[in-house]
Design brief:
heterodimer, A: alpha/beta, Rossmann fold, six-stranded mixed sheet, 7 helices, 8 strands, about 35% helix, globular, B: alpha+beta, Beta-Lactamase, about 45% helix
Chain lengths: ~180, ~120
């Protein structure tokens, strides 16, 4: 594997663009515009409407092509476009959002077909803002539904934290 | 979001657009982040909600591509298809106009009327 396409998806404000920006070695290609609806605007000034794109080369020479999706359901056609050809998916869930478990369920369900043939990890962000639900709750949620997905707390502003999430995904790809 | 008065002005101008150019079968105004503001069509044959959101995606991609190539602002995006043409263009920094026709030889009419409409909508706001 010399090049790997990975996709960041997840709820609005979970930190998808931030995570790609913090690890990309090229200036990130962004398609963010001013948010006009109050629900999004109260959380952030701009929102992604097409995609983000960044690149990261790993120590072994593998190049990661990093794509970020818009978060809102109305852009779900971009979700389907962007996962084409991807080997791995990273779902970011905003723990400080109004319904993080509902968000998680929605994204896991939406990408159920993708994960049957590929790999997926989940990162829970903004746990410094909202500590509940805690990681035990997420693990229990998965266990009760028979979902076997790695899930980690992540700080999308921290390169170390985001790289850790990606390394987990790469390891899953290598051993799958 | 736009005020009711602003949306009424846009609705009126869209109605005029479809009256002046009956080869334009539908037109949509959306915000650049994908919310429908208003729409109009000659016959109720299209579901235009998704087109509003897709219009925002395409215009934003157009802006990103032209910025990457140092080509200034993206004026419009034209999708020429087997059964018609769709045109996407900025009204201002926040709004997008999407127009479509099923007449494949009507690109000139589509663009000229749509550009004029977009320009006048910007002035109305």
């Amino acid at each position: 594997m010399s090049e790997i396409k990975l996709v960041f998806t997840g709820s609005v404000g979970a930190g998808k663009t931030t995570a790609i920006e913090i690890i990309s070695e090229i200036p990130v290609i962004r398609t963010d515009v001013r948010a006009t609806d109050s629900e999004t605007a109260k959380r952030k000034e701009k929102t992604t409407v097409a995609m983000d794109y960044g690149e990261l080369t790993l120590e072994d020479g593998q190049k990661l092509r990093l794509y970020g999706t818009p978060g809102q359901q109305r852009f779900d056609y971009m979700w389907r476009i962007l996962v084409k050809g991807a080997l791995g998916l990273i779902i970011l869930v905003d723990n400080a959002g109004s319904d993080p478990i509902g968000d998680l369920a929605r994204y896991v369900d939406n990408f159920r077909d993708f994960v049957s043939n590929n790999q997926m990890v989940v990162g829970v962000t903004r746990m410094d803002i909202a500590s509940e639900p805690d990681m035990d709750f997420y693990h229990q949620y998965f266990a009760e539904r028979g979902i076997a997905l790695p899930i980690f707390p992540v700080d999308a502003r921290s390169k170390t934290s985001v790289v850790m999430l990606i390394q987990s995904l790469i390891a899953m790809l290598e051993f799958s | 979001m736009l005020s009711g008065e602003a949306i009424a002005k846009l609705e009126s101008r869209l109605a005029q657009l479809l009256h002046d150019c009956d080869t334009i079968e539908a037109a949509v105004v959306s915000t650049l982040d994908g919310h429908m503001c208003t729409m109009r069509q000659q016959a109720q044959q299209y579901s235009l909600e998704r087109l509003a959101t897709m219009g925002s995606t395409l215009m934003s991609l157009g802006d990103t591509i032209t910025a990457e190539l140092n080509m200034g602002l993206c004026d419009n995006i034209i999708s020429e298809n087997q059964n018609g043409i769709v045109a996407f263009m900025h009204i201002n920094n926040d709004l997008v106009l999407v127009t479509l026709t099923t007449q494949k030889n009507a690109l000139g009419m589509l663009l000229s009327h749509s550009r004029r409409c977009a320009k006048e909508m910007a002035e109305l706001l």
